[in-house]
Amino acid sequence: MAGLVECVPNVSEGRRPEVVRGFAHVVAAVPGVRLLDTTSDPDHNRSVLTFAGEAAAVESAALALVAAAYREIDMRSHRGEHPRLGAVDVVPFVPLSGSTMEECVAIARRVGKAIAAAHDVPVYYYAKAATTPERARLPDIRKPQYEGLQSLMATTHAPDEGPASVHPTHGAIVVGARPPLIAFNIELDTADVKIAKRIAKAIRESAGGLPAVQAMGFELTSPPRAQVSMNLLDHSVTSLAAVWREVESRASAAGVQVLRGELIGLAPLEAMLEVARASLRLDGLARTQIIEGHFIE
Amino acid sequence: MAGLVECVPNVSEGRRPEVVRGFAHVVAAVPGVRLLDTTSDPDHNRSVLTFAGEAAAVESAALALVAAAYREIDMRSHRGEHPRLGAVDVVPFVPLSGSTMEECVAIARRVGKAIAAAHDVPVYYYAKAATTPERARLPDIRKPQYEGLQSLMATTHAPDEGPASVHPTHGAIVVGARPPLIAFNIELDTADVKIAKRIAKAIRESAGGLPAVQAMGFELTSPPRAQVSMNLLDHSVTSLAAVWREVESRASAAGVQVLRGELIGLAPLEAMLEVARASLRLDGLARTQIIEGHFIE
Predict the structure, then answer these.
(1) What is the SS3 string spanning B161-206?
(2) pLDDT value for B119
(3) Closest Cα of chain B to A66: distance in Å?
């Protein structure tokens, strides 16, 4: 069994469905790659493709997608609400079953070099593939956006690969490696959104809460209910079981029950094994103890 | 993605390791089949092979194993503590991700017919593949054993397929379909085995406890601890989470903490998803929400 790698590129096109479908076809046509999701946002004028497979196949698909996006997107005329540096804005590689973060960093570096060489585009490495601590966070790299990047090329934004000049139609690109992101919500048995907001504030990392957790409080309608909406940025640091426990105990202290969890999109198998380890105190539970784990390829 | 099927044949040879290795090679040589485990017991003079793959591959491997076992084992000289009817005693087919019990019943029937035709051996269908309620339970079918079967062939033990006479060297065979069996233990924070035995008795189905659960209380040494040892015969009826809850609450009523769970051997992915559904109240959690679930083939 070879290791699986996920790739979640964000491309600066969310208004021409036929173009985005073309990108999806380019990815899905690579043998060994499965396209798991494509989501477009017209306001952001941006699409996110999620695909996975063995490392070499995912690497090929990422490069094929970049080439296709560079043929179709012209940054000189791109408008959208979401910050971006280029036609392909960010390309994260994510380790899944059987692969490691180190492997994904190596993939990111190979893909970054290949993009710089093939397309004459400045490349920035971020997250676990960052070359300096200042480049770990994507928003910091992306702050000047496509329009303001050239003026910083000689100072804060010297590229990690490629030329020190923004490509007129492609812009620049950010490539990196990060853990899988899990979007997980917990619904509370109350319509009082203030309770959800208070819990969210208490548990989010930025306010000194749980590490690698982003959280917001939302109000759901029909029926009216408060929801704690979370991103787990590294489930090996703070797991689904850990946020559930924390939200449940804080809700309970406010006299409110938790109603249900909701997983948005996909989660890696390892995150589910963590839940079983926590609930059944199965410390040593390994992926090889899951029958289907032997057939992941 | 095609569905996965598991097969767990029990063969009447546990004393000649080189012969059992030969059986393992026969199975592993079938393309698309993965041999997950081979366990031999010399006292029982019996081995259990566990393998899985797509239905057609697993069917071929089961037939190849039966042919190999019939070449090597002579029931006229077989001795062992474990009850058995033939050189290949029982062949259960088990639905995993993407396959159904109905498909496994159909496989069992196809394999049963093929064995009867190729080897002139009487075949009995059991568990979900049984043709009458009296044949649902394996011990009932196996009771007369190889030595006593011929005398019942005209009455209670008319075969479902094949001749009404026990094959002199192969004996008879039981083929069927059943849910995956999960062997799961819970260790208690006490050395008092009486508490484990009492809990086991209360939760086992045979004493009116949890359906599809077998349970025993054991005493572990170094350190001395009581353990509730369980087989979950159908985790869709009584799940890992349900037995954990039940044992924990009964232990707690006896003033004892549960220390940890232990999974013996393998469990299907679906059983882990059930744990996540129960712990995080993720009612709708589907296999397709597990990234790796898209790569099971």
Answers:
(1) ECCCCCECCCECEEEEECCCCEEEEEEECCCCHHHHHHHHHHHCHH
(2) 98
(3) 23
